[in-house]
Write a structure and sequence with these properties.
The chain is an all-alpha fold. 64% of the residues lie in helices and 0% in strands.
């Protein structure tokens, strides 16, 4: 996926590729750990490739002389936003995979109430993190589309600028911790 950030169609292409990654990114009602691992792992792999491509472009564009081309400068900012959004989605997918690892680790243990509760909690976290990843990808694609529209707009006149745009802050994934230590209830 070569990225030429001076042209809005290329940012739209990246946005479309990000949206394609959300297709099928869900956890059906009757799903196995293996299905979640495959779905989340495949998206994580695709996002890793995309993040590498974006970071290569950013590395090339941001380590040389500073450009005076407004489209290129806006494109750099758009790619930085895309990098943050894909990284956020990758964090959510990794958190879901962590829960799958927990489920696999405890799959063959004798059942007891605390383990059943922990398994239910792990599935809830998996659902939440997959939903969070999908939302982060949708938000990133929407932002790229908006950035693509602005990419070719003429620069604002200096007299009309009232404030410097604030940097965008991405919400970091909340760590989900589920105890893997079995807690035995005291015998009556």
């Amino acid at each position: 996926m070569p990225i030429y950030i001076r042209h809005p169609d290329n940012l739209r292409t990246v946005a479309r590729e990000i949206r394609e990654l959300t297709s099928g990114l869900d956890v059906p009602e009757h799903c196995t750990e293996e299905m979640v691992a495959y779905t989340a792992g495949a998206r994580l792999k695709a996002l890793s490739r995309m993040a590498e491509e974006i970071s290569n472009v950013m590395l090339y564009r941001l380590t040389g002389p500073i450009s005076t081309d407004q489209a290129e400068l806006r494109g750099n900012s758009a790619l930085a936003t895309a990098a943050a959004g894909t990284a956020q989605a990758m964090g959510y997918l990794t958190a879901a995979l962590h829960q799958v690892a927990f489920l696999n680790e405890h799959a063959h243990r004798p059942p007891f109430p605390d383990l059943a509760d922990a398994r239910d909690a792990a599935w809830n976290v998996i659902h939440d993190r997959i939903d969070d990843a999908r939302a982060a990808l949708h938000d990133t694609a929407d932002q790229l589309d908006a950035d693509a529209r602005r990419l070719t707009q003429p620069p604002q006149r200096a007299a009309r600028r009232s404030a410097v745009p604030a940097p965008q802050v991405q919400r970091s994934p909340a760590p989900a911790s589920i105890s893997t230590v079995s807690r035995h209830r005291p015998a009556p």
